[in-house]
Amino acid sequence: MVKDWKRLLRPADPERILRGGAANLAGLILRTFSGLGVYLLIARAFSPAALGQYVLLAACITLPGGLSLLGLNHALSRFVQEQTGRGSAAGARAVYLRIRTQALLFSLAAAGLVFVNAGAVAEIFGRSAVTSGQVRFAALFIPLFALMTLNRGLLRAHHHSTAYAWFHFLPNLLCGLVLAAALLFFNPLGAAGLPIQAFAAGVGVSALISLWLVHHILPRKDGGRVNELPRMGTVLRVSIPLFLLYLMHTLFTDMEILLLGHWANDTAIATYSLALKIAAFSGFIHTSLSVPLVPKIAEKHFQGRLAELETMYNCTRRRMLNLTLVLGAALVLAAPLILHVFGKGFHGAWLPLALLVITQVIFAATGPVANYLTMTGHEKACTVILGSSLAGMVMLQLLLIPLLGILGAALAHLAGFAVQRLLLETYRRRITPGA
What we know:
It is built from 19 helices and no strands.
């Protein structure tokens, strides 16, 4: 009995997944607290409507910037691990530079598209006060956001969990500092564009810091040979399933916000965004443990240690579920008090928040199953599953958001991801002996 308690309090962690997860968990907590701090600052210094406009404009940076990568930031883990496994640090650097060049081209094209069509983008937000000039300003920072996101992928591939964790919260932290300093020293309370300008500054500085870190991780000359670099077609075949997985998440975060911007007002957007931000606490365990786990999956599969891979994966997934259940229950109970801090206009966020927490429990129960399939060579099947479930998710959003508003968005979020995870886990069990 005593041994069981010791095992629970200090579980075996030979792969250092828990250690890497702890660093990432700290970054996630700081990101959410810094994000909530920015939300609170805008809601109190400006208005809930100003917070809604800020969320929409931030999505104009993060959504195109993330989508333009086509999953390259995730595929980077697999190909860097392959080069590292062959003992070629020079090969790892060459893979990174090739993928970074392609990613920058994609992000520049996305930025140009948003910039040219800024008027049409502003018109989509039919009931919002967002202007085309604000959209054009946001578009300028899309390539910097994409660069920062890609560099985070390299930090994860090299198991730099602490440095990776910094970039969870660094843009929000810098945004909050710039915003607080402007309000304190200049007091520009009438400047509606100030919040998004502060966020853009945070993204730009974070991108430069990430670039500096990457060039220290990958030395220019190491004496290794560069051979058998993957073609971009091969990289894209691996990145597309991960891109679809990212697209699923953005459809139920940034895209939900954009659709609410069309059918609802800025206050509704602010309320739902706050529910998303608070519910993210319950997903900390799943996300933080997935970051160090995914490169280990690629590493063990490349080495042919499949039994160890399955044991490691299932053990980590059970930990995810147990801890997420406890954290999610505590969060739902404490949510009314948390919402009260932001003001009376946000009490309607409680029920959507509870549904979003249930979604995070489903994530924890299945683990990073899409990453598992992609890192073990089943990217084609993963693409089919993700692509087919994507259509159903879009239909749910288009059906429920106009009818039920923020509650419809939360219901679409829960139902869509529940079906997706069930399909992915069913396929994983079918292909994995003894799963």
